[in-house]
């Protein structure tokens, strides 16, 4: 999803804690655009699994909830 928008695969850092995933679970991450070095805070909400692929809805956030 972000790769299509940024033109290349970004680096995503959601911290080192193990997170139990379930539908509707939200985690906060930082995304680094490799082309510019810009870092963005994002909210990733787990929306399920399809054919073994995890699905997330990603949203840029101004401040954390």
Describe the structure.
By secondary structure, the protein is mainly beta. It has one domain (2-60). The chain is built from one helix and four strands. The chain has a four-stranded antiparallel sheet with strand order 1-2-3-4, with no helix packed on it. The chain starts with a helix and ends in a 5-residue tail after the last strand. The model has no long low-confidence stretch (mean pLDDT 84).
Roughly what fraction of the amino acids lie in strands? Answer: over 45%
- How many structural domains in the coordinates? 1
Q: Got a strand count?
A: 4
Largest β-sheet summary: 4 strands, antiparallel
Task: State mean pLDDT (0 to 100 scale).
Answer: 84
Low-pLDDT segments, ≥5 res:
none
C-alpha-based Rg, rounded: 12 Å
How many separate helices? 1
Distance between the termini: 23 Å
Q: In percent, how helical is the residue content?
A: under 10%
Order of helices and strands: HEEEE
Structural class by secondary-structure content: mainly beta
Molecular shape: globular
Can you list the strand order of the major beta sheet? 1-2-3-4
Fold blueprint:
Elements: H1 2-6, E1 11-13, E2 26-32, E3 39-50, E4 53-60
Antiparallel strand pairs: 1-2, 2-3, 3-4
């Amino acid at each position: 999803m972000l790769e299509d928008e940024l033109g290349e695969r970004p680096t995503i850092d959601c911290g080192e804690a193990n997170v139990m995933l379930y539908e509707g679970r939200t985690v906060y991450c930082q995304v680094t655009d490799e082309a510019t070095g810009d870092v963005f805070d994002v909210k990733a909400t787990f929306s399920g699994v399809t054919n073994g692929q995890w699905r997330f809805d990603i949203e840029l956030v101004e401040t954390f909830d």
